[in-house]
Amino acid sequence: MKFFSSFMLLVLAIWLGSAVFFIGVAQSAFAIVADREMAGAVVGRNLMILNIGGIVVSMILLLTSLISASMVGRVSLWTERFLLLVLGGCCAVGQFVIGVWLGSVRSQMGGPLDTLSLDDPLRMQFNMLHQYSMWVMLAAMIAALIAFFIIANRRFERPPVAKSDVYDFSKEFKT
C-alpha cells in the first residue's frame, strides 16, 4: 500500500508543479508577447491542459484511494477523497463553466479586449470571470496541496486480525 501512496504523491506533485509553472507561463506570455490577444490564446490553451489534467488526476487518485482504503484511517481517507473531489470539481468548473462564459464574452466583444473602455459591461464581465477563474484555480491548488500533505503523513495500520482458535472448546462447554 505504500506504493499507492507514493504514486498518489507523485501524481499530485506533478500537477501542483504544473499549476505553479502555469503561473509563470501566464505572466511571461503577457510580458514578452507583444500582441495581448496571442498571449491570451497561449495562456488559455495552457489553462485548458491544466484543467483537464486536474480532472484526470483527481479521477485517477480517487480510484487509487479505493484500492488503498483498507490500511488507512477513515477520517484521513474521506478528507483526502473530499479534497480530490474539490480539485476535480474546481478544474471542471474552471474549464467547462467559467471558460465557456469567457469564450462567450470574448465572441461578443468583436475585437481585442484592450479596445474596450474600462467601464464597458463586456470588459467588466470579462474581468469578473477572469477573477473567478483565478480563485477557482487557487482553490484547486490549495485542495491538492492539503491532500498532498495528508497522503504524505499517512500512517498505515494493519487490519485487526481476529484471534480465533478453532480448537478452543471452552466457550461451548460452560457449566
| Alpha-beta classification | mainly alpha
Count the beta strands: 0
How can the largest sheet be summarized?
none
Over all CA atoms, what is the radius of gyration? 24 Å
User: What does the average pLDDT come to?
Assistant: 88
The number of helical elements comes to: 4
Keywords:
single chain, 175 residues, mainly alpha
Give a brief rundown of this model.
By secondary structure, this protein is mainly alpha-helical. It has one domain (2-152). It contains four helices and no strands.
Report what the structure shows.
This protein is mainly alpha-helical. It has one domain (2-152). Helix content is 75%, strand content 0%. The chain is built from 4 helices and no strands. It has helices at residues 2-32, 36-67, 74-109, 121-152. The longest helix is centred in the middle third of the chain and has 36 residues, at 74-109. The radius of gyration is 24 Å and the shape is elongated.
Q: Topology, please?
A:
Blueprint (H helix, E strand, L loop, with lengths): L1 H31 L3 H32 L6 H36 L11 H32 L23
